[in-house]
Amino acid sequence: MESFDVIVVGAGAAGMLAAGRAASRKLSTLLLEKNRLAGKKLLITGKGRCNLTNDCDVEEFLRSVRTNSRFLYSALSRFSPKDVMDFFEALPLPLKVERGRRVFPVSDRASDVVEKLSSWTRRQGVLTRTETVKELWLEDGDLCGVILADGRRIAAKSVIIATGGVSYPLTGSTGDGYRFAAQAGHTLIPAQPSLVPIVTKEDYCRKMQGLSLKNVTVRVVDPKKKKPVYEELGEMLFTHFGVSGPLILSASSHMDAGRIADYRITVDFKPALDEEKLDARLLRDFEKYKNKDFMNSLSDLLPRKAIPVIVKESGIDAETKVHQVTREQRRALVSLIKHFPLTPAALRPIEEAIVTSGGVKVSEVNPKTMESKLTPGLFFAGEVLDVDAYTGGYNLQIAFSTGFLAGESVLQD
Ligand SMILES: Cc1cc2nc3c(=O)[nH]c(=O)nc-3n(C[C@H](O)[C@H](O)[C@H](O)COP(=O)(O)OP(=O)(O)OC[C@H]3O[C@@H](n4cnc5c(N)ncnc54)[C@H](O)[C@@H]3O)c2cc1C
After folding, report:
1. What's the whole-model pTM score?
2. Residue 363 burial (CB count, 10 A)
């Protein structure tokens, strides 16, 4: 029977770092991946450009972690965003920093990240194979290795589970790691979507389907709290079911999935203009188009697809001549453009979430090593753990840091 020092299950961001780091310590390391190629999810990150980390310090980073940030302190200190950037630059994979300190490869190709990581693992001596792990091989609670889908057993002194969450299951993350963790007695925090599109009650989103807005502000208010729970300037998208795009995905992770219908979302179509300035701007446009119908007066101000919706919601008859629009009607129109309402009905399913929240309960894992506190020799890394963060490169950094720490800690005296 084959035997290794370390078996890593899952060749995503976390698994590749874990395997490479373990092998660099001269441990015989087998990396098992059910897909024919490694890093299938990595390929679709950052819209195919891979936002691989965020160029910030650890304290700042932790403020962008939504769940269990303190648990990540050791992993992020050991392999920080700066370390990740140095690591990739040395591969070599030249990087660039964009708005919001998001870090991308200069080539804008996620495939370069996967290729460089795969060849790095090979150079460290990792043996990678296409195999699906069915379960952990445990005897009387002791970890002996893994059992493959066809029943074969492979022995190992240690196993690192890096199987991801349950989002985008076509990439291979189908929650298998949760089963393995449960086998070893671990508690699982129920999986929930995080960074996910939002279904809205209003039918007008469907009418604006495909409209992508840049430089708008999205604000989310929880009526139970006085302050908005989310307010950000950026990009969003209308879809057939509601809304998506970077701002909406981020907003979703600030909302409690269990009472999603309680929140109120508003979009400010013109954040650069306060109400007075917008009113003055409307007055100028109305002067320019004074003999036109109201519905034909907004094309300088708003995107084409939004105009019929704004006209209808304004309550002003579309065929009213512009010079007949009253001051009150114009004031109400200003308010509509600055506080365009969206009522959340539901989050889209977890399969469509960028990240899975929930997973292996972190209090049962040693944050300094990523080793299970219940089953010696068993380690966890990446999204399989109950950690998740906002958009901006944070989730991949978590996968890299926890993977690196697991690979460094495994079989350490
Ligand atoms: C569309 C999209 C865009 C994203 N963009 C970004 C971004 O730009 N920046 C960012 O920071 N984060 C981004 N994320 C999130 C980020 O991709 C994940 O958080 C990260 O990839 C998790 O890494 P992981 O290694 O833990 O899991 P995964 O990348 O999911 O890897 C797990 C691997 O384990 C394998 N596996 C599972 N079960 C088994 C088994 N039984 N046997 C063998 N192999 C198995 C899977 O096939 C898979 O390859 C994005 C996510 C999505 C869906």
Report:
1. 0.93
2. 10
